[in-house]
Structures are given as structure tokens and as C-alpha cells.
Amino acid sequence: MSVFSELRRLAEAPHNDYLAAAARAGRPVVGAFCTYVPEELVHAAGAVPYRMRAVGSSGTALGDTYFSSANCSFVRRVMDQGLRGAFDFLAGIVFMNGCDHNRRLFDNWRHANPATGFSHMLFVPHAGSPACLAQYRLELDKLARVLRERLGVEVTDDRLRASIALYDRRRRLLRELAGLRRAPEPPVTGTEFLALMLAVTAVPPEDAVELIERALEEARAGRAPAGTPKLRIFVTGSCLEELSHLELVESHGAVVVADAVCLGARTFDRDVGDAGDPMDALARRYLARVSCPRMMDDVKGRMAYTIDAVRAYAADAVILEKLEFCSMMSGENYIAGHELAKAGIPSLALTRELYGGEVGQLKTRIQAFYEKVGNRS
Amino acid sequence: MIYAGVDVGSLTAKAVLLRDGRVAAWHVEPVSATPGESARRVLEAALEKAQARRDDLTRVCATGYGRHEMTFADLERSEISCHGLGTFTSNPVVRSVIDIGGQDCKVVVLDDAGLVDDFAMNDKCAAGTGRTLELLARTLGVSLGELGPRALRARRALPVSNKCSIFMELDVMQWMHQGRRAEDIARGITASVARRVAALAGKVTLRPGVCISGGVSKNAAVVRELELALGVRFVPLAHDPQIMGALGAACFARLEHERAREHDRRVLRASDPVSSVDAAATPDCAGCTGGAP
Amino acid sequence: MLVQDGFRQIGDVPASDDGLREPMELKPFEIIENVVAGAKLGTKVLDKGPAAWALLRAVQPLLFHREHRLNRAARFGYQKVGSGRWTPGELAAYRQDCIATVSFFQRVLDARDGREPLVWLGWPVPVEVASGFDDVAPFVPEAFMAIANMVGTDGHVACLEAVEREGIADDICAMDRVSLGAYLLKQIPEPAAIISVAHPCDAGRTASQLMEYLTGAPAYTINTAYTKEDDDVMAYSKNLFEAIAFLEDTLHRKYNWDKFRRGVRVLDEQNRYLDEITIMNQAVPSAGLAFNLQTAWGSKITGSGNPALLESARLTHKVGRFRLRHPGIRRRVEKFRIIVADMPIVFSEMYMWIERTFGGVVVGDYIGDAIFPPIDMSSLETMMMGVARDRLYMGMIKQAHGAARETVDDLERQIAHFSPDCVIQNGHQGCKHNRALGRIVRDVCRRHDLPLLVMEADIFDKRVMSETDVKRELTAFFREQGFAS
User: Fold this and answer.
1) Which has the closest alpha carbon to C92: C38, C49, C56, C60?
2) What is the value of ipTM here, to two decimals?
3) What global pTM score does this model have?
4) Peptide linkage before C285 cis (omega within 30 of 0)
5) Are B120 and B181 in a shared domain?
6) CB-based burial label for C263 (10 Å; 0-12, 13-18, 19+)
7) Residue C443 touches partner A, C-beta closer than 8 Å
8) What confidence tens digit (pLDDT) does each residue in C376-434 have?
9) Does B123 touch chain A (CB under 8 A)?
10) What is the number of domains present in chain B?
11) Does residue A227 come out as left (phi exceeding 0), alpha (psi in the -120 to 50 range) or beta?
12) Host domain of residue B187
């Protein structure tokens, strides 16, 4: 069986056999809500880091008892899943002040108190200045203390170095696989890559490395699932975990060749390295890698990253993804639309609800956009 | 050669037949149980009007929300592209299209060949669509057809929110409770829908030569308010504005056929220097340059 | 941009031949000019003591009940001076706010005319960061939302529709969109520099970022404290020092630290009065000064450190003392007591209307609640810490920053101290964090057996909920809860 089929299976469920095996081996699983939560730190505390997701969500009925209709569908669905016991396998969750919705997810989670262990809020500054770096470093120390108290494992420098090495390896392998998508016939579609990202952030990193190596092997063996795409697409956004949505984006002969999303470049951009104090190095990497729109002082950096990547991956167009009610992506997409237009790169802003349907309208927009790009080429 | 375009939307199904570059027949009817069934029925009705048979059709292009269900179609195009090319074919000066349909609203900017250069489309909010007009007309107790003429007889426009159709309905009910003139409320409704559409138009840069299409274009009051809001006068269309999507689809059917022939010609030329294909037998749609600038 | 250049000449523009309500067209700086004119008029009229009071009472029938074509330009100003329900003492106090308003906005107009550079400050940035310069005009774009009604409530809508036409999504808070719209409609001058904020909410930081992009002005971002703990506030205050250094470098001017010290002393003294006025509202019957505190909140955002605001607080405090000594005056008015979260600015008269119509008195509200810790004057560092902390304790910032505890603790304290009979939440649509607190706030009210009304309104967008809608909803709630028949 192709490893991509296995990855897809792993991507489509909130829990999996790897996590069950880890639990049997006595390893706790700790959820993390954002790419600004260093998984290395959680791993060094003896736990399996698990990226929180709404995969398998059946609706928002329970989530809506806490959130309003003006809150984003990701937090409503995750809350719903949490209240239904989908994350009861967790020993704790590290929340993060990524946005107003996520920050209140922490509050509501604590109020509802589902059986998911401890809840900790990692406060990440909104800029990368030296003062903010120092502040973030202190927050990581606080997180290490909480993990020690909750899991009983001291995060020593040696343990942290070992975890950093493992995660750097995972990042390098992911970058290598992502790099293969530069080929005229990409060996991995965007949907397959997203499935892989969902899978490798839901299993122990040791298993993740093995899965990515198998994927690389298959990719290098010359597979081309979509042939030569009619259009090569770059995707930006924040929370994007629906395989069905990327399948829609990849309809009409288009293939996603690169991205700047959480479950993508933001996860594997830039290594931590093994030089100096490991906690300092960790703080530096997380504030220096390709940033999320929540970071105030890096708009130019994000725009430059997108434009460079569009050229490096020979993308024909960009899709700017946004979940409804995400104020930050509203601002970011306005700026990105204008900056991409200046660079002569066509873009389409899509607003959607997570697993929200409205497929007909989205299809029309996407198809019309591709027709428009086709008209210009 | 006959090319057919079939547009199955949320409320109506439309079919247009093109023969020798001209509209040979068209037909509109309400959608029935399934989009595929609606498409078949409306196409048969158009064929009957043109006294033609299915076998006479060279190519069929599907568009509209039901486009994926039309298994008999040779190709499909988005309704945005089809409305663009349809209006351009109907009046070659058109470069911008405001299309207000039953459940969506689109603003399309065209290049000089009638192909999409840019577009904007409403999100899931129905505030600037025909559905809203229908809902508010019902709230006001008048038929949809009557709403426009009533609005035109208004002395003033009572303020109606343009934020969402529910808020609009609340405003309408509030004016009704206060016993205000139905004409003035109707004018408020049409002005509100127009402002909503104008805001959507603000997302693109309109090119001169703006036309309006879609079912709502038959509402003279909305058309007038939109002209005010956009500061333009709409250019006329030679055909019923409701069939622009189907007309565009028929044009795409023709374009596709020509492209295929051109491709075959190239292949033949490459393999045999003496081509037997008659290169002069391409019909000409009024105004359509076949995708060439 | 709606149409490309020269396009408007091509189409025939049909004339608006009747009373069609079109989006309000604003002349550049029209709103600020109206505010300056209105505040100057207020300075003169409110000087007349009982005569001013009698005049404002006399015109009440023309201005109180609803906005219409004839009164829309005057009604907001009338609401700002208590809608004919303030006493001569309160009017005298508000006269001082008018003086501060004139001095702030006149400088903005002067900056427009090139007399000095203008610095935009994100709403939670202490105005001291710029007002400590001798020759820099501070401006808070978000303060614009509080004055946009100066041309009638369509002023907000005009700004919001300008943003919608620009293609900026409407899920950003209306307050921030009003300030963006004001810029697009040339209602506020270009900045020479911007001090942005990263917190307390996404909308504020997004608007900051859009402002930076649209203006192209050099910007410094302040990472606002997440908690009120010393470490966090210290980091925040360091950001404020850095912001001042940034402005010195960018504008090539020296900051006047003596002016800063003077301003902070005034601020601290004003805070003592505000604390006590807040506490006076706890009395039964209350001092009835919630709306005055809300007004003080607005004035403080733009004019912190202005001696006129200290005088305003002192005079309001005097009114409160008098009322507490003579409780019979307010006892006749106060039938039930209310805590309000975020009054809709599109209906500034809400408190007065509830009081007049139902005898309900707002005793505490999120914006006006003014309990500030004292400022340590021993050094510049401690004073900056004090200024930083002052902003974290200001209404709206206090509830919006950090964890839900900030809101819940406040509500619990208000319930414990103000003896309310019910709680009303505006349900501000754009306020994502507040809209995510429905269940938690509901549980707090349930625990205290307090009726709660959550309106689906918007603080700044009357298209979501108009004054009439708010009145209808409040009436139904008061009747349902037995406060009104």
C-alpha cells in the first residue's frame, strides 16, 4: 500500500494507532494549538506533541453554547469536539494567544473543563524585536516549568537538544519533500501534502520521520499523481486542514505546489540548530521563521516570502485563504492582494467556514479564477 | 452548425442556440427536480423553437450551479466567464457586467476579447441578490414584479439597512408598523440592494461600458438606484439579460469547437503538408473575436 | 477604488431628484471641523450656568426622541451635554471637557495645515507618548468613532461604506473600520509616524497594520501587556520608552520629559477623583454619574494630562458629593439599577432614555468604570509604569486584554459593589473576544440570579441595530423582567 494512502487515513481521524501505542508505552500526549508552541519543548518533557484539529468534527452544536456566530468555525468545531470527548486521550493542552478566538478558546475550555488534562496559555508576543524575543524566552521557561509540574519530567538542556535534533530532522525531510514539488510534474499534490502534514503532527515525531522518509522514497521513484498541472497554485492563509477543500482548489487541472500556511511552510521553515543555549535557539527560531499574520512587524517579510516562493515554485497564481471572522486574515489578504497585483501575480481571496459546505459558490469562484488566469497566459 | 449553451441557476434554467453566429432560439423555465433534468428540458424546448434536433448540435457547453450535473454537455464554464462573454456578444462595447441573480451577485470585468479580466462575487450573505428582493417584497405584501414599479412611484426612500437581509426585513417591518407608504419602503429596499451591489463593485476596478444582467436587471427601480450608486448609465443589451449566461456558454461551445479544429489543422499540417481541411468555414458570432484580442 | 480614472465622465450621471437617501457625502475634515465648532459653542454656552441648563431643557422636545433630517447635526452634541437631563453642576464640569476637546482637535487641524507633524496612536497607546513633545500633534484614529456622529449617525455609515467599497472585509470591528473609513474619506490628516498596538484585540492590530500600509508612514509596534502583572507591565512600559525614542528619531525632535511629568501628575490626580466618582455610583440611590464617567473615558483617551480634565473630574466629584448628601434627589429617579457592557455609540442617549422612560439607572458600565491604581511618581520609570498600567485599567482595554478573568473579575466586582438589578450587554458584533464570552458571562449572572440581556447590536454600526431597535429590545426586556409595565 502506498504510504500516501496510510497518511490520508491518519489525517482523517483525530486519534490513531501510533498515539495508542505511545500511550501504552506510558508516553502522555499533549495538544498544542499553534505553530508558535515549540513542539520540541513538549517532546523534551517526555510527551508526544499533538497538533489540535477539528478533523472528524460533526458540527458546532455544543461549541455554539460557548461561542457566538461571530466566532470562527475552527474554535467552535474544536470546542465541540472537546466537549464530545474526542480529545480525552490528552494529558494536557498548550493554548496560545494566536487570535481573539483562540484566546477565548482557552477561557471557554477551562470553564467547560473537559477531561483533557491541564490547560496552559503560552503568551507569544506579536513582534520579533529584541524585547519581544526576551519576553518569549521567559514564556518558554514558564511552559517548561508547567510541563515539569504536570508531567514530572525536567526539561534539561540535553533532553531539549535531542528533541531539537529530532524536530530539525523532521523539518529537513519535510522541506526536501516540499522542494520536489518544484518539478513540472509534482510528485505530491497539495491535498496529499496536507494529509501528510496532518498525519505527521498527530503521531510521535520518531514515527513521523519514518513516514516522511517513506513518502520521500515514493516521491523520488517518479510518481506524478496529477501529471503536468494546467495551473500551479500557491496557497496562503492560516488554519487550513480540510482535505476536501484542497481537493476543490485542485479541481480543473490545478495543483497546489507550495504554501504559507500553519500546516505547511510555517511548520518546517528554518531549523533551530545545535549552537548555543537550546532554549535561546528555540525562541529565536520560532520568532524568526516565516511568520503568521498575527505578527505585527513582518508584513513585508511575509509578502516577500510569498512572492519569492511563487517564483521558485513557478506558481501561476495565489489563493488567499481565510476563515470567516478572522480579522487578521482580512487585513492580511487586503495587503497581499494589492502587493501580489503589483508583482503581476493573480490572486483570489477565498472566505470559508471550516468544513462549511457552500461548495457550489466556492467551485464557481475557483473555476472562474482559473479561467481568468488561463485567459491571461 | 449549431452551438448550445445551457445555464441552470438556482431559480431558472436557460438555453440558447447559436446558428451562423446568431441566436437562433432561446428558452427559459423554472428549475425542476434536478439540474440535469432541468437542463434537458430547457434544451429540448429551445431545440423545438429552432426546429432542430439534438443530433444537429455541434457542441454543448454547460454553466450555472447545475453545470456539473449536465452529463450530456461537451464542456463546462463558470457562470462568471459565461456572463462575461454573453454580454460582450450581446453588445461589444461591454467591458463590465453587474449580474444579479437569484442567490448571487457578480461583478465581472472583461478584457477586449470578452474574457474575464477580474471579478467579484458576493459571499454567502444574500443581501444583494434577487432572493432578498423576493423576501422583502413578500414582507411588504407585494409581488416581486410589483416591487419595482411601486418603488418608482415613491416620493422618498425610507432608510433600509444594507447589512444583511434579516436586518433589512426588520427595517421594512418597522416602517410598515409605522404605517409608512409602501412605495417609499419599496424604494428603500431597492436603494439598499443597490448600495450593497455597489459595495461589491468597489472590490474591482470597473471598465467603461457597464451593463446589467441577471433576473434582477428586469427591476427598473434597482437598475436606476444602481446607476445612481455607481455613477454610470448602463449600456443596453441586444438580448434578454436573463439569458446572458446561456449565450456566453453557447459562445464558449463555439470557441472550443474552433480551437479543436485549429488543433486538428495543426496536427494535419504537421503530418501532411497538403491539408484537406477547409479553413474558411468558421461562423462569426456578432461582436465575439473568438478569444483573440 | 471604484472606477478607473476619467470613467465618471463617460457615463451619464442621473441626478438625484428627490429625497433618496444616498450615502452621506462628507467634505474633507468636515467632522473634525464640526467637533471643534461644537466644542467651542459648548465652551461658551455652558458658561452660562442655570441659563444654559434652562436652554437645554427647553430644546429637549426637538432633540430627545429621535434623529431626523432637521436635528441630526445638533443631536449628537446635545447628547454629549446630557440630553437636557444634566444639572448645572454637570454642565459646568462638561464645559472643561469641551475645552480639552477644542485643544486636541484644533491641533489636529493645525497639523493638517502643516504647522506641526501629526502622530497616530493606536487606541490603547497612552497619548503621553506623543503629547509629551512640545511640537507634535497626537491623534488617536479610533477616537474618531466617538465623534463621527457629529454630522448625524450616518457619519459612521459613510465611513463604514467607504471601507466596504475599498474591499476590506466587514468582519473587522466597526470601530476600527470607522477610523479606516475616516482616513479614506479624508476626514483625518496624514500621519508623520504611527505607533501601533498588537493587543488588546485582533481588530485593533489589523487596523493598525492596514493604516500603516495605506499611509506608508513609519511605524513602531507596541506589544501591549497581556496581564496586569508587574513583569508584563514593565515590558509594556519599556515599549513606551522605545516608542518615544522612535518618535524622537523619526521626527527629529526632543521629548519634553518635564511636560510628561506634569501630565502624569495631572492624570494621577484626575484618577483619584474618577475612582471616587465610580464608588459614589455604588451608593443606593447612586450618584447617577455613569454617563459622566463614560464621557471622561472618551476625553481621557485623547486628552490625558490636560488640566481641564482634572477640573472636569473635580466638578463632577462635587456634584456626586452633593447628591450623596441629599439622597432624596436621586431616590425619586432611581427605580432599578443596571450594569451595562459597552453602550452603543449610535445611541449615545441610551442611559438618559432608560432613566427618563423607565426609571432605570445605569450604575456601572464597562467603559466608565474608572478604578485606577495610584501612580508612583518617584522616577520616570515608575511614572511610565503608572501610565502603562493606567491604560490597562481603562474601560474596554481592561476587558479586552488578556484572559477572560479580566472581564469576569470585573463583572463580579461590579455585581458585588453596585447592587444591580440586571445586566445589559451590547453584544458588539465585531468584538470577537467578547462575543466568545457569552456562556461565561451568562453563568456569572445566573449565579447571582441577575437577569441578563445580550443584544445582537454593534457599538458603532447602526445598520446592525438602530436606535429604534435598541429601544424596542430594551423595552421588551424591562417589561419581561417586571421593571416596566
Assistant:
1) C49
2) 0.93
3) 0.90
4) yes
5) yes
6) buried
7) yes
8) 999 999 999 999 999 999 998 888 888 999 889 989 999 999 999 999 998 888 889 98
9) yes
10) 2
11) left
12) 96-236
